[in-house]
Amino acid sequence: MILWVLYRTTALFMLILSLMGLVLAYGQSHTDDALLLVVNLPTHLQMRDVIILDTTTGVQYAIWRQQNVERVALSPDKQRLALALLSQRGLTLLNVAQLNDGSNRNQVQDGVSNPVWSPDGQWLAHTGRDFRLEGLYLTNQYGENLHLLLDIDSDGVPVWSPDSRGLAFVTEFDNQNVLQTIDIESGVISTLFSTSACIIQVDWSSQLRLLTANHTILVDVEAQTSTSQQTINLESYGTAYNVRWSPHNNTLAFTARRRAQEVVVTGIDDGQIRRYQIDGLWIVSVDWWQPQQR
Question: Is residue 199 part of a domain?
């Protein structure tokens, strides 16, 4: 009897320690740079996990599971996920899920892609189509009140300004990749920069920046001028997919091929490379756990 009590007490103690470890890991991912990944499950190709990967410890764990997740974005308050879902009817749904209780709201739209939260958490912007009209769209924080912000043909990820008042996006015109911004209240569009080089990612966490295969281009929004500086050579990795800047702007994360089981994290300044194998069949999308909050 005494041994049985000791056994149960020890088991309970170990369970409490395990739960404490999960809570600590969850809290750690709120403070340190960690990756937010969408991965296919090996047992079900349509079922996908949203995974947190701590780039300091390599620990990874799932926070959400749902079918046909194409892209995910975390709200600045870390309470909601915006998910682009492919439905069985071929439509793409914008799903806003509450992490605390699992509830969600759907805004059906044909062709939703690349949802991004505004830094103040009040808006979601994304590219897509509504009634076959392609463009840049805006909804409220619940994925409702959809309206067309700009009629453009762009597959890139729109990027919010730090004050949540404007968006930057890239379009193609005359064999040039053109960087433009739009004020979401007035609708005023400004053309800032154009290049024949492939623009891999746009970042506006502080200064507006463009990433090409081997250069970072800094754009002064007010003066509408730009400077170029050499940075990490992504061409040395072959083809880089899902390239994302870290919230602190000194690290890049990407996959070296389209259906990769490994995510690569490298320092822009020191060139230090870390590789992480994921618990899944392949990586669908990559983002950073800490959104740009202002």
Answer: no
